[in-house]
Amino acid sequence: MNKFTLSLIFLNSLFVSIGTANAQSLINNHRNSDIEIERKTPNVDEILQQLKLPHSKIAVIDENQQVKQQNFVWVFKDLKEVGKQPFLQVNKETEKPKTKPESKSPKEDELEDFAEVTKDTQKLEGIFTIYRHKHKNKIYLEIRPEQLKKNFLANSTLESGIGEKGIYSGMPLQDFLFYFQKIDNQIQFVVRNVNFRTREGDPQAKSVARSFSDSVLYTIPIKSIHSERKTIIIDLGDLLLTDLAGLATNLELAASPEQAYLGNAKVFPSNLELEAIFNFANAGKNSDVLPDSRGFTLKVHYSLSELPKSKYQPRLADERVGYFLTAYQDLSKDERRDPFVRYINRWNLEKQDPTAAISPPKKPIVFWIDNAVPLEYRDAIKEGVLMWNQAFLKAGFQDAIQVQQMPDNATWDSADIRYNTIRWINTVDGFFAMGPSRVNPLTGEILDADILIDGSFVRLLKNDYRQMIQPQNLQTRTSLSALVNNGRLCGKGNQKSPKSLGNLSKLATDYDLCYGIEASNQLAFGSLAMSMLGNSPPNPAQLKDYIHQYLRLIITHEVGHTLGLRHNFRGSNLVSPEEMNNPEITRTKGLTASVMDYIPPNIAPDGVKQGDYFPNKVGPYDEWAIQYGYTPSQATTTLGEKSFLATIAGQSHQRELSYSPDEDLSNSDPTVNPWDHSGNVLVYSQSQLANARRMWERLNEGYTIDEESSSDVEERFNTILGNYLQNLYYTSKYIGGQSFYRVKPNDTKGQIPFVQVPVEQQRQALMTMQKYVFAEDALKFPPELLNKLVPSRWLHWGTEIQVGRLDYPIHDLVLLVQTAVLRDLLANDRLTRIKDLELKSESGKSLTLPELFDTLQSEIWSEVLQPQGKLQISSLRRGLQREYLNVLMEMVLRKESVPEDARTLAWYKLKQLNSKLKRVNSEDEYTQAFLLETRDRIEKTLNAPLVGN
């Protein structure tokens, strides 16, 4: 074997972090081989010049444990062999960009004179001292030496918007835990990395600082340094007139730097409040709300504040109780596999009298009602806020929450971090409510909260289902779940319009953005049901009370978010359908288990006296969750509370305390839904489907409201249709369904995580689908009604005119609904789950694939399988039957991914159907042609060569 020399060059005999490890491995592996290894310490520059070998910089650690950059090179006999080594790569030489060298920072004595910088300025003192020069439109920030490297909070809020596309007044933007850092004659704005921590005294703290970087967002030149007190002056415009809040990045629009300026500035002992005004070029994008689409102005409110100085004790989270979290990795925690520490987000409430069972708090949570809220809604908002005091009593606090009215002449802004506000905004496309809070990212302590309510909630009792029946949507095959879920929720990936809230606001993803357009639809359906199911239209007082109840619920829900609570979409499953309209029960026990669900109007079945439309008290889950988060314990440390908290969380097995947030929403759990109702969703949905049919009948009977336009009939038809689809969706989830519960492995109450829907309920759900979707008369409407469905013909800004076909596409609409349900029932995930549930259930206690296929075929092809009299298949039935064939043929021809047993059953059902088709005939030409074509399609499919495995 030929010998060669491998020269390992160690720079200054220092330890090379990567190269040495690889080199040592190579030495050990070839210690007994014919390779001669030579260790050298020559002059680096000479070697590089002599060899002309590509080289690079590498981080090295010297004897003082300091990281430095050094030249580093591997030397081989043949450079072609280098790339073949998996751990040795020679970097290719690249041309350096031809850029101007960075100018060096000026020496400290070359900075501007402090007195000159602050000359002719107004001095304001507080947490920071600022100097405002009104003529130059400059604000200078003075930083004391002891404020360097100190943690502060920066919060940004969109103070003014444009009212559309997510650019809404009051939207929270970015939050930072930051510090100022001096580098030469510059100040850096640095975001602290709090995701990785160590316990006090752990030597790994030094490693954490080296391993996980903070984020330097901006470097700002120092204007001057005071000669005596050594305070530093910077121009705040260099920080706040940048894209610190992320507007340009998320809107993908460019602000005009020369037109940006700072507005109002106020300084207080613990916080600094400032405004920055930006002018944006809209690049000619169309807007209905701007006077000229080429540009608009936005105002951003910034709050810079200190971290609170309190004895707040963080509280550990439990996944059975729904709180927003502050989580980090504890690198000192090596005794467990899970390195995360999770704190719940909550306010710092302390009793005035710690020995009393119930005591007022030392510092209550105070909400201020925005002075822009219409007068007629202020009482409902106040009631919604104070409703939570019922829950805090269970935690030992009296009057924990208070409400104040913001004066019309208030000198403070709603975005001021010192005030918790309920802000009223107006949009043309928002229809949302939001209850975000700002927290200390180190502990989870809630410091500030501002609730946003879009006035369009109650201003526009209209629906948005017309878009569903547009021609381009009717031609698209879809499933029921996709059809219903599209646009129903805001946040968590749903209802994302271009440049919408999810893009603009970081907090919109960190917190549950609520309601959305579906809330407006639900409100519209409830008001319509009040009118059409009663003996007479509601009077103004009844409508006012209805809106009052709804607005009160929205506020209660959003306040729950500001208290730290997340959504609980099992919260509506409390009382039975029979109890829902009994005020003696709903006003004592409650209408729902939690107001943190999305609660639709409670519409009584036909013939039942109407009860409360919406809850008038928080539910048992809400009380229990507040107990977990706020009941004081006797423990003096966070870890010392574990057994105390485990006792409370251990009650989660109780049905009314079950918790399911956004991420637990699925197509398989019929008990977890937004906008469902009652402890038996299946029975309740059947009553609502019957209500919808009755409302369509009333619409055809000439139901009218004064001053209605010709398009109102179609809008009401679509409103009813949207509710109809939702209840079909809730019903479908029972078929092959299973419920998921959050339980601990050592739970002694016998609860298990997954529970199959009883087979009797699955069969009942299938019968409901047959009656309200697949039956001959399921979606059959009188011709008179169909000819009244007229679209709006207004053409101006803020409207969308329908062009092309103007009459209602009833065939396409009915087929869309039937196709959506059918494809949902025969979707791969449902079929796979049904097959798996056969193994997860006792024998005979599960719905099987053969039963599902047989039930569907028997109903959809009932005229052929059980012919009665002269056979004449209607056009609506032919459309459904064609779609059924399409689904089964796609399975047989392997165009759809389904379990093999399902594919075999599809083949078998086609075989059976073809046999029946040969025995029937019809005198109706439509039916004759359809039956012959169907037989031909089936036979070609059964005889087709197989594709794939």
TrEMBL record:
InterPro entries: DUF5117, DUF5118, EcxA_zinc-bd, MetalloPept_cat_dom_sf, Zn_MMP-like_bac. Keywords: Signal. Residues 113-159 form the DUF5118 domain. Residues 1-23 form the signal peptide. Residues 88-112 are annotated as: Disordered. Residues 542-866 form the EcxA zinc-binding domain. CDD domains: ZnMc_MMP_like_2 (cd04276). Residues 92-108 have a biased composition (Basic and acidic residues). It comes from the Bacteria. Residues 170-351 form the DUF5117 domain. One of its GO terms (molecular function) is metallopeptidase activity. Gene3D superfamilies: Collagenase (Catalytic Domain) (3.40.390.10). PANTHER family: PEPTIDASE M1A AND M12B, ZINC DEPENDENT METALLOPROTEASE DOMAIN LIPOPROTEIN. This is Peptidase M43B pregnancy-associated plasma-A.
